[in-house]
Design a protein that fits this description.
heterodimer, A: mainly beta, B: 117 residues, mainly beta, 7-stranded mixed β-sheet, 4-stranded antiparallel β-sheet, 11 strands, 0% helix
Chain lengths: 114, 117
């Protein structure tokens, strides 16, 4: 059965700290790995990773994929209270019908205290 | 920035009633999806829709569920006879992707919170 596992499930840090969120996966037909931030409702896109070892960066956030060891990390440096959210990892499953469904992990809840 | 729009944002219904959740995907997107998230649990795939037909559905998407794209812009999820366990946040998503690409055009709506009482 395909699965995506995130760790830790929750994390409390103080502003300015650096955090690393983990995502491991076992998906038969891996196509890509996506990170989303979910604050109140809709997940909002952060990164899509398809190739091993290539870091994607956006401001204080960065992410990298290891397709050999089947995991990805999301780093947030100099955290701010606005980073408080649930971070979701999802794997895109290539199916013969090109459905592009996403298989989600359970999420990491990050709380950044002032 | 283009958005996926869902209505209503919150719906309360009695067990056994039919509900229709509505979505307006981004206009040049070709693939459409419904996901649900039961409170405190993972986001789960329900169904994907492409070229006016279902391309894949999960085990959750049984005969009580159906989807339609009635007029080329709306995309609806119907639950025929709601059960208490259907209470969840339902997300619509769309993506433009061509061929096998799974690009960042995958955009989620704000969700409809369905409460079955």
């Amino acid at each position: 059965e395909d699965k995506v596992v995130q760790s830790p499930l929750s994390l409390v840090v103080h502003e300015g700290d650096t955090v690393t969120l983990n995502c491991s996966y076992e998906v038969t037909n891996f196509r890509s790995l996506l990170w989303y931030k979910q604050e109140k409702k809709a997940p909002t896109f952060l990164f899509m990773l398809t190739s091993s070892g290539i870091e994607k960066k956006s401001g204080r956030l960065s992410s990298i994929l290891d397709k050999k060891e089947l995991f990805s990390i999301l780093n947030i440096t100099a955290t701010q209270t606005g980073d408080s959210a649930v971070y979701l990892c999802a794997v895109g499953d290539y199916f013969s019908g090109n459905t592009g469904k996403l298989i989600f992990g359970q999420g990491t809840t990050l709380q950044v205290k002032p | 920035e283009p958005e996926v729009t869902q209505t209503p944002s919150h719906q309360v219904t009695q067990m056994g009633q039919e509900v229709i959740l509505r979505c307006v995907p981004i206009s040049n997107h070709l693939y459409f999806y419904w996901y649900r998230q039961i409170l405190g649990q993972k986001v789960e795939f329900l169904v994907s829709f492409y070229n006016n037909e279902i391309s894949e559905k999960s085990e959750i998407f049984d005969d009580q569920f159906s989807v339609e794209r009635p007029d080329g812009s709306n995309f609806t999820l119907k639950i025929r006879s709601t059960k208490l366990e259907d209470s969840a946040m339902y997300f619509c998503a769309s993506r433009r992707g061509t061929g096998m690409s799974l690009d960042y055009g995958y955009t989620f709506g704000s969700g409809t919170r369905l409460t079955v009482v």
